[in-house]
Design a protein that fits this description.
Layout (H helix, E strand, L loop, with lengths): L2 E9 L5 E8 L4 E5 L6 H16 L7 H10 L7 H22 L3 H4 L8 E9 L2 H13 L4 E6 L27 E4 L1 H19 L4 E5 L6 H11 L6 E3 L9 H8 L4 E3 L6 H9 L5 E2 L8 H13 L4 E2 L9 H11 L8 E2 L5 H6 L5 E3 L2 E3 L12 H4 L11 E4 L4 E2 L2
Parallel strand pairs: 4-5, 4-12, 5-7, 6-15, 7-8, 8-9, 9-10, 10-11
Antiparallel strand pairs: 1-2, 2-3, 4-14, 13-14, 15-16
Helix pairs in contact: 1-3, 2-3, 3-10, 5-6, 6-7, 7-8, 9-10
């Protein structure tokens, strides 16, 4: 069996997705996600111009060799564009392997380690009273973990708070919009929110919060300490992770668990954070970290240091990525949580799948392969729409981490 064709399909059923479809000379097909939020066409071009020609004629069963060929053979390694392209190939090849074997991919990864994949949803609203309603809605749907984000008094916009409570998408304009930020206002606003949520929903609901890289280490330490009475499952992306020594300072001052990694691309990006036990959850995703092959390597390494998985799963990942992540989530021993932002009905129609949500858990497909596909006829009805992520500025108009 050889790879006969590989197609790159860009579609926008509510937001932009890049999908790679690999077809063998014996008719087996596999799909992979190559979506990079706000830079989708860069990955599509990389795939079409550099990766697809190298795939034709290769044995689709040689997944590890193909991964190394695309990573080491390119010389210009790493980076979100390259690793998203490699991820798409890797997912598609695992999809084919599962179909040829007649098994769901998780069985090829060692089988189940748990009955279901615990997921968390996003409760977001402008005010504390409104967010309590949103948390309650997720609890009523069966969620066992909820990320809580509210508006910051005095700011016109706040990260994580959108007009659509269920389908929040920050990349909502052709040219980047500008939003405002104040660390002082934010640090004063967050602890009272969690005091109210914990008082309303008790000690057992898992609560999470995303800082989105906006604090310095000492500011993050202050926030983590102020949130300790509310027993968060994790505080996400407290600081920019380029200076990883900053996490040591946070650790010195708070016991609030830390999660980071959705913008990481390789095991080298998180090697120090994991080996020095500076984080508690690693949030690398299957699409931005090179597919199942490499993400499994990261999670296996993390398991040596009491670090659990917490994979990114926002709507900038297509159902193909979510399906792939679930197969890994169900199989690894050190699973923590899986982010689950529901896709729109249009997206679910374009990407038919058989994973399902029940009582706070997602369950991967039981059919051979990943259990997801791209309906190319439906996808063709939703052409690409330019969409950029916002730019963040302080109140004095200085550019700040978004």
């Amino acid at each position: 069996m050889r790879i006969a064709e590989a197609r790159v399909i860009v579609t926008c059923p509510g937001r932009n997705f890049v999908t790679l479809k690999i077809i063998t000379d014996e008719g087996a097909t596999g799909v992979g996600d190559a979506t990079l939020n706000g830079r989708e066409l860069a990955v599509a071009s990389y795939l079409r111009e550099h990766v697809v020609p190298a795939l034709l004629g290769r044995d689709p069963a040689m997944i590890e060799d193909t991964w190394q060929y695309l990573y080491q053979g390119a010389y210009w390694r790493r980076g979100p564009v390259t690793m998203s392209a490699i991820a798409a190939v890797d997912m598609a090849l695992w999809d084919i392997k599962g179909k040829v074997a007649g098994l769901p991919v998780y069985q090829l990864l060692g089988g189940r380690s748990r009955a279901g994949v615990t997921v968390y949803g996003h409760a977001n609203a402008e005010t504390v009273d409104e967010v309590l309603v949103e948390v309650g809605r997720y609890v009523d749907m069966g969620y066992r973990a909820v990320r809580v984000q509210t508006g910051v008094p005095g700011l016109t916009t706040t990260y994580g708070v959108g007009g659509d409570r269920m389908f929040y998408e920050p990349a909502d304009a052709a040219i980047a919009t500008e939003v405002e930020w104040s660390t002082e206002r934010y640090l004063a606003a967050v602890p009272p929110v969690f005091a109210r949520v914990r008082d309303e929903f008790g000690p057992h609901l898992r609560l999470l919060h995303d800082v989105h890289h906006r604090l310095t280490p000492i500011e993050a330490a202050r926030l983590g300490r102020s949130l300790e009475p509310y027993a968060l499952t994790w505080l996400e992306d407290p600081v920019r992770a380029e200076l990883q020594e900053g996490f040591r300072l946070i650790r010195q001052h708070t016991t609030t668990p830390l999660a980071v990694g959705e913008v990481f691309n390789t095991i080298w990006d998180c090697q120090r954070l994991i080996s020095e036990q500076l984080i508690d959850y690693i949030r690398t995703s299957v699409v931005h970290a090179g597919g199942l092959t490499h993400l499994r390597r990261i999670f296996d390494f993390a398991s040596l240091y009491h670090v659990r998985s917490g994979s990114h799963g926002a709507t900038d990942l297509s159902p193909v990525s979510l399906a792939a992540a679930l197969h890994l989530d169900i199989s690894i021993p050190n699973f923590g949580l899986q982010e689950y932002m529901r896709h729109t009905r249009a997206t679910d129609t374009a990407f038919p799948h058989t994973y399902r949500f029940e009582a706070g858990y997602l369950h991967p497909a039981e059919e051979p392969g990943l259990g997801v596909d791209l309906d190319e006829q439906v996808a063709a009805q939703y052409p690409y729409q330019p969409a950029a992520l916002p730019v963040n500025r302080l109140e004095d108009r200085t550019i700040h981490s978004w």
